Amino acid sequence: MVNDFKVLGKATPLIDGALKATGQARYTADLHLPGMLYGKILRSPYPHARILNIDVSRAKKLVGVKAVITHADTPGVKFGPVIDDWYILAKDKVRFIGEEVAAVAAVDEDTAIEALDLIKVEYEPLPAVFDPEEALEPGAPIINEGCENNLAFKWEVDRGDFEAALREADVVVEDTFSTSQVYQAYLEPMCGVAYVDDNGRYVLFASTQVPSKLRFTYSKGLGVSMQDIRVIKPMMGGGFGAKFETALHPIAMLLARKSGRPVKIVNERDEDFMAGNPRVPMKIFLRIGFKKDGTILAKEAKVIAGNGGRTVYGPPILSTACYRTDQLYRFTNIKTRGYLAYTNTVPTGCFRGFGNAQMTFALESLLDEAAEELGMDPADLRLRNAVQDGHLSPHGWYIPTSGLSECIRRATQMSGWKDKRASAAQGPVRRGIGLACCNHVSGNRPFFRPFDGASAIIRIGEDGKILLIHGECDMGQGQDTVFAMLAAETLGAKLEDVRVSVVDTDISPFGLGSFATRGTTIGGHGVVAAAKAARAKLFEAAAELLQAEVQELDACSGTIFVASNPDKAISIAEAARHYMFTHGGGPIVTQGTYVPDTQIPDENKYGNPSPVYPFGCQVAEVEVDTETGLVRVVELWAVHDVGRALNPMALEGQIHGGAAMGIGWALTENMVTVQGKVENAGFMDYRIPGSRDLPRFHVGFVETNDPKGPYGAKGIGEPALNPTAAAVANAICNAIGARITSLPITPEKVLAALRGKRKD
What we know:
It is built from 19 helices and 31 strands. It is globular and about 80 Å long.
């Protein structure tokens, strides 16, 4: 049991929490290097236009300007994280408002901004298309040459016999759902500090979720070897999926090379909105057939997704939307089609949930519609179809453990579900309750095809202090704390004796970073492997000092002792010193590696991408003012299958944060775009929930102790958000008796639904 552990399972504050709370933490934007310049980027004012001429002569002459670059100053190579459709700076045309056209570096920000005003660009506006469905129509303006009908990516899969199964269905429900484009709203905007070292290598301090992977992408665009790029990741002020590749980084690097001085670029908030990587908006058609008893027989899905003007991670996000939820319930007969369309809008990318959140909103909403048709309780319908331990899905996903059914039972019990569902809604302010479930991955083998694993390095000095080096990414979610706890538990050390190193690609192992809820599971296994190897070396040295056999030893709280005689003991520091002095002064240094037995899906999209799979169920209770249309979430219960709760405090915080983001997505958040321009590009107009907008949260953990997780653990980062919007939407429907199928659910939509009892 977790309670038997000395470090794991205890509510532990984050190891960097005090630094952040007191303002001592140093982020990328806080860095100041000697001689550093300030960079600014000139962005396109047009959604689609040909570049006829760029005149930078006046900008170059401005006092204080040290470098000005355009496409002509770049290698001119197409590159990109998934599809090579990026240029560092626009070549001959721009494809969205905010695309990078030129950049300057100056002695201060004011001079850099003034220099941007002196750059003159002649544009020839071109026809533009903003809606993904319209972009796919014949005759629509082509955004990227060579891409017929603006189709960036297509996804198809068929399992079983969908048509035959649908004919056997007693009840068939179908509907179309739309999810909005939303901004990740991290506090620290995109930024980078770059310089060229004495060996001519690029050094980049970056606020990024993928320090090692950046080098793969940028090396191609910059025309250099990966080893010519060093990435260092300071503390981060959030990411939530946005902080992968960005043109800002190679622009800073090129400015640094041209000027011969370090260059810092920090986006203004409106730049982050217009040229960041917000969530992929989707239109989803779903049709599901059921037996009378609620058993699912067949499911059809069609997804049209917006890619924006260039490709960030749209293809894998669309793929995720198309098939990840097929492992939430026991689906057998499936027909799915997905289409990713270029549009003259901001490029879209990763956002907590990575496509799964969009489909979860649609699927969980339609299941409530089905429950009404079938005359079943929505919770009972899900329990009838929930995936169980040992499930092999139609796509080849093997689920070692599933706590889904227990999550549903506990969430409904905690919330008083049955009594509240039975209460009739009356009066101008009506209450409603709704639930939604989710599944996710903890690692995703096809995302980075060379491998999906992790390594870590442990170094123990002569004083017994432990340095943990890894290549993953703590962006505020508490990953470094869990890694330190895993190392301390495995070594039998004190948590305060473990220090976690800053990620530096010159020193750290190659790490894939923070995505696919992989940190605790994949990265954690690497840490445990390194700690086990270090423990073996410690015990080897301790056995000599204690005159005992290695197998007789144990360790706890910084002490190594003979298990049968705990008084016969030495400290980890004593063992480390003995090892060092008997090994030529070399400290204990070990590397641990974890490679999961997962599979890249084959040409038929069949394979097992993750070692473990988390599940969850959330119940939302809402109040709806039928006179104003205003919705307030008053309570939310979230019960999640976490495998094992390694740090309950951090887990609860993650669930609070994820659900809060989900409430914002459900009710208020939407990037309002008119003719390709984001009209609410700032926190005054883009409304994220504040403390007074949030409900009372009630959190529960289902511990399935998955044998493939480190100490049984699964991830929580993305599942914490995935079901929230659907739970809120279902609760609103329960309150007003009408379903709204598009996000966000605004007061205007609520009033329209009340007037006509119609959707949307």
